[in-house]
Amino acid sequence: MSLPLSHPALLAADPELASLVGSEELLQSETLRLIPSENYVSAAVLEASGTVLQNKYSEGYAGRRYYEGQQVIDQVETLAINRAKAVFGAEHANVQPYSGSPANLAVYLAFARPGDTVMGMSLPMGGHLTHGWGVSATGAWFRGVQYGVRQDTGAIDFDQVRQLARKERPKLIFCGGTAVPRTIDFAAFAEIAREVDAVLVADIAHIAGLIAGGVHPSPVPYADVISTTTHKTLRGPRGAMLMSRETHAKALDKAVFPGLQGGPHNQTTAAIAVALHEAAQPAFRDYARAVVANAKALAEELLARGFDLVSGGTDNHLILMDLTPKEVPGKVAAKALDQAGIVVNYNTVPYDPRKPFDPSGIRIGTPSLTSRGLSTGHMPAVADWIDRGVTAAKGGDEGALIKIRAEVSELMAAYPAPGLPTG
């Protein structure tokens, strides 16, 4: 294990935990992280996450708190709100949700009642648990109906979405998900939502950074409510935001507090503010463009090596691949690639005949490697490592995985990760 010299107080107070932190720093430094929901935050975001703002309780909203001593906290939260509105062009923003799932729960509390019908993308088709899927509280407390993708194209079936909406008349329609490799047509969803008088919720957790960077269309002109995490492509802390038209501001704010939460995590609010400041810079637009360029280049390289990509490729940061033609289950491949220093997650694919805990696919993405400075010129090597790793998984060739890991570690050493200690 590695002892993190960059955390002297932690090392002195709790060497065991400090050692674990050091080991994680080393792991993040040496491996190629391809999980599309992960990224590296800047040193500034890390610092903001660990400030004395941690010490303050702040139930309520700026100017309307239930605790005194909020002179600074009100300014921090207002700064984050104003930056969110500026980056995304939204009329209203709430930066208090603890994470993406609580943010989505607040939407339910604001606009629906238990037993109401809600509509979202089916989880196996690429949706999210909180869009009304059965094992989630949103599926237990509300009547969830799901749309999917076309089996021939892997794209959202808008004929099905419209027919289902007309039949079920949902209170809420969610668009967005966790494994959607193509551009989301917010305008098409908005047209359907208006037709059935539903509230359209755009869950942009995965693509928020791409929207901020101008490489994915914005839902702001079309969606009633926008829900997002602040990490992933946005490169902020583990938090969330809700944005909306001003007409929905009061209902959403009331749903977050006092509806679901107590005091906000002020240190996270500060880190969100920093991330949004970074997202407003020209360099972030360059980053967002590079994320998409890398993903498209990687997809082309994988296709050339015989991989089956859902929808045939990607428009964003995410690639979903079906390993059935390779005769390797997704879980087996993911664990083998992890041994090779390539971090992915096994994932269901549309119309997957296998069980969710042992699916046919893996999900990869380019946010993290782009944050390290890797470019399209590196994607042939990345695709080659994945190809060799999947082949080794099929044959049980651990020697090949060890060799790949050494090659990965060598490249990672040449491209230090933001926010991680060096030396």
UniProtKB/TrEMBL annotation:
Gene Ontology cellular-component terms listed: cytosol
Database matches in Pfam families: SHMT (PF00464)
Superkingdom of source: Bacteria
Necessary cofactors: pyridoxal 5'-phosphate
Enzyme class, spelled out: transferase
Molecular function in Gene Ontology: glycine hydroxymethyltransferase activity; methyltransferase activity; protein homodimerization activity; pyridoxal phosphate binding
Entry's EC annotation: 2.1.2.1
Cellular localisation: Cytoplasm
Keyword annotations from UniProtKB, A to Z: Amino-acid biosynthesis, Cytoplasm, Methyltransferase, One-carbon metabolism, Pyridoxal phosphate, Transferase
Site, Plays an important role in substrate specificity: residue positions: H231
Main location: cytoplasm
Catalytic activity: (6R)-5,10-methylene-5,6,7,8-tetrahydrofolate + glycine + H2O = (6S)-5,6,7,8-tetrahydrofolate + L-serine
Serine hydroxymethyltransferase-like domain sequence ranges: 12-386
Similarity field: Belongs to the SHMT family.
HAMAP family according to UniProt: SHMT
Quaternary structure, from the entry: Homodimer.
Main function: Catalyzes the reversible interconversion of serine and glycine with tetrahydrofolate (THF) serving as the one-carbon carrier. This reaction serves as the major source of one-carbon groups required for the biosynthesis of purines, thymidylate, methionine, and other important biomolecules. Also exhibits THF-independent aldolase activity toward beta-hydroxyamino acids, producing glycine and aldehydes, via a retro-aldol mechanism. Thus, is able to catalyze the cleavage of L-allo-threonine.
Protein name: Serine hydroxymethyltransferase
Gene: glyA_1
